[in-house]
């Protein structure tokens, strides 16, 4: 006698076999809720979400505030190109957002777009013409461009507004040093160090200025302080080696040259 195997599909319309095999229909039914077993975006947890538009009604601040925070986060994550786009979007909404212009100028300077940085700071100073921080920032960029008269005007104006402003003092001292005025540079850099004793760059340029004046002992002190403050100050160590060589202290000089090579690695 011919025997028939029992199957769940025994009572089904045979036409269904054209679409589904009996084995394909067996097993537990899928849950009624969507995406329980097979999420549409299995890698979504690993995707960055800082560029997603915030729609949470509980988020505080205006759209400009949200963009400003987003740009700051992009800078913190070392994504300056994205931060530039975000800052520019913010400034299209609020052209008087001074902090955004200052932050954008900082990024542009780091990207060697010095003229772009000056343009942003000039626009910021339209709204805050006496802000010493903005004046010092623009003066520093103008000095890199070797526009020394304009740079010095900004830095001295910043110091008229705030005589103890550390950035203005440092950049003015550096500018005077670059102009070949070591005496004035020494006075200004010492003032900058008095205000901010942790400024290793100020200590280094003070050492350079003292070296140009022939004050080897003073230069040695400044350069050792620069190296102590920043172990990566290879230039300070190298110049210190030259000064020690000039004093006939060959062994100490060789040690400084070795440390300078190690710092440059």
Explain what the structure shows.
This protein has 265 residues and is mostly helical. The protein is 64% helix and 0% strand. The protein has helices at 22-25, 63-76, 80-93, 98-110, 114-127, 132-144, 148-161, 166-178, 182-195, 200-213, 216-229, 234-246, 250-264. The radius of gyration is 33 Å and the shape is elongated. The N and C termini lie far apart (90 Å).
Global Rg = 33 Å
- Count the beta strands: 0
Beta fraction? under 5%
How widely separated are the two ends?
90 Å
Element layout with pairings:
Blueprint: H1 22-25, H2 63-76, H3 80-93, H4 98-110, H5 114-127, H6 132-144, H7 148-161, H8 166-178, H9 182-195, H10 200-213, H11 216-229, H12 234-246, H13 250-264
Helix pairs in contact: 2-3, 3-4, 4-5, 5-6, 6-7, 6-8, 7-8, 8-9, 9-10, 10-11, 10-12, 11-12, 12-13
